[in-house]
User: Which sequence fits this backbone?
């Protein structure tokens, strides 16, 4: 009877460990899915925020604009330029080459001004 109890206890421990591992795997997958969802939302924000800004500019009730409204193609062109600038900034922020260049530039400035351990103003 004692051996049966100990074997059942051992099986319970193993199944509990297995369930914990499975739950951990499930939570990891869910975290990855959430990160992918946030990445998609960020991509959409880089499109819609500049377009919303341009739409706000073009919809202002200013006398000069109300008397002579700009054509629709002007909105399209300005919106595309705003989205391109926004994406350009995003790409520049993630660029490894640009980061390397900025670190090199920072090192050169520190060497020339002898600001080795200080924060540059």
Assistant:
């Amino acid at each position: 009877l004692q051996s049966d109890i100990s074997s059942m206890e051992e099986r319970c421990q193993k199944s509990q460990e297995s369930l914990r591992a499975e739950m951990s795997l499930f939570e990891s997958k869910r975290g990855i899915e959430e990160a992918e969802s946030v990445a998609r939302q960020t991509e959409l924000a880089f499109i819609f925020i500049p377009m919303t800004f341009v739409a706000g500019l073009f919809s202002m009730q200013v006398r000069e604009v109300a008397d002579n409204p700009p054509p629709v193609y002007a909105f399209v062109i300005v919106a595309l330029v705003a989205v391109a600038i926004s994406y350009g900034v995003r790409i520049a922020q993630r660029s490894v080459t640009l980061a390397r260049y900025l670190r090199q530039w920072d090192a050169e400035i520190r060497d020339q001004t002898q600001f080795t351990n200080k924060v540059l103003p």
